[in-house]
């Protein structure tokens, strides 16, 4: 993966998304620096550099909590998987977004499809047109919430059944 280059940021995002789906992992942005306004590649690449880490990466932050709210959970398991990409320029190819560092070994957590389904980002439903249409009407918000919850549960169950083969 190191050395792979992309002509625009959309290509890069699609590549990462495909990798996440194939490997049943999720990368989140850990740090970035946007290109300055007026940069020739601002429209296509957007970033000077971008660092993605595993959703379960980074150790949990130490707190000064007194234990008033016990049993707080975190997705963090100190996984070391990281992807770093930077903008590069050459006279032949022009500006490109290049992956300069890729550590893809996921430690301290499972990488199976059922675990990936539980990530909050994967549980989100796509905007439902019927709910969008109902928002403009005078239907009480409590009823809209119930409809949305029902749809969200159904979508999650359908995804789970599809991957496990159950009905």
From TrEMBL:
- What domain of life? Eukaryota
Stored InterPro entries: Zinc_finger_SWIM
Record protein name field = Uncharacterized protein LOC106067742
User: What's the source species' lineage?
Assistant: Eukaryota, Metazoa, Spiralia, Lophotrochozoa, Mollusca
């Amino acid at each position: 993966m190191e050395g792979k280059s992309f002509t625009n940021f959309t290509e890069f995002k699609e590549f990462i998304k495909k990798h996440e789906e194939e490997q049943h992992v999720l990368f989140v942005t850990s740090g970035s620096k946007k290109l300055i306004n007026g940069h020739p590649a601002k429209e296509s690449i957007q970033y000077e550099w971008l660092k993605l880490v595993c959703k379960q990466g980074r150790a949990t932050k130490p707190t000064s909590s007194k234990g008033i709210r016990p049993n707080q959970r975190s997705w963090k398991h100190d996984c070391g998987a990281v992807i770093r990409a930077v903008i590069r320029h050459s006279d032949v190819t022009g500006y490109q977004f290049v992956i300069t560092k890729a550590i893809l070994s996921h430690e301290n957590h499972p990488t199976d499809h059922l675990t990936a389904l539980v990530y909050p980002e994967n549980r989100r439903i796509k905007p439902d047109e019927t709910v969008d249409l109902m928002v403009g009407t005078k239907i009480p918000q409590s009823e809209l919430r119930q409809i949305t919850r029902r749809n969200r549960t159904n979508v999650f169950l359908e995804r789970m059944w599809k991957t496990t083969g159950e009905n």
